[in-house]
Write a structure and sequence with these properties.
This protein has one helix at residues 2-11, and strands at 24-33, 36-50, 57-63, 69-75, 81-88. The chain is mainly β. The chain has a domain at 15-94: Roll (SH3 type barrels), CATH 2.30.30. The longest helix is centred in the N-terminal third of the chain and has 10 residues, at 2-11. The mean pLDDT is 90.
């Protein structure tokens, strides 16, 4: 079992900023189209985090055009993730923000911002 943990430790990224549920995060995803590779931005509210180590995942939710909600789940240590940047720190009291799925319009993106003193 130590061999598995050792291999997993090698796969982990060191440059991942700490963020939690409720934070607004912008990530760059490496997309391959044809033979070319480009970076595509995805910005949304983190509604859940799960797993640990190299199995750590997070789900981002954003409101796309015409008020349609889009959710994507990403592995934190994936080689497909270009960069991860925290835009706003949210102040929430829940571990999962699934209640945002039922919200429409501005209420779907309204999360109190954490004050820094």
């Amino acid at each position: 079992m130590d061999l598995i943990k050792m291999i997993e430790q090698q796969q982990l990224k060191e440059d991942v900023p700490s963020f939690s549920v409720g934070d607004t995060v912008r990530i760059q995803i490496k997309v391959i189209e044809g033979g070319k590779e480009r970076l595509q931005a995805f910005e949304g509210i983190c509604i859940s985090k799960s797993g640990s180590g190299c199995n750590e995942m997070f789900t981002l939710r954003k409101i796309a055009s015409h008020g349609v909600g889009v959710e994507r789940t990403f592995p934190v240590h994936s080689p497909r993730l270009g960069s991860l940047k925290v835009i706003k720190y949210g102040d929430v009291r829940r571990a999962k923000l699934y209640y945002l799925r039922g919200k429409v319009g501005k209420a779907a993106t309204r999360v109190k911002e954490k004050r820094s003193n």
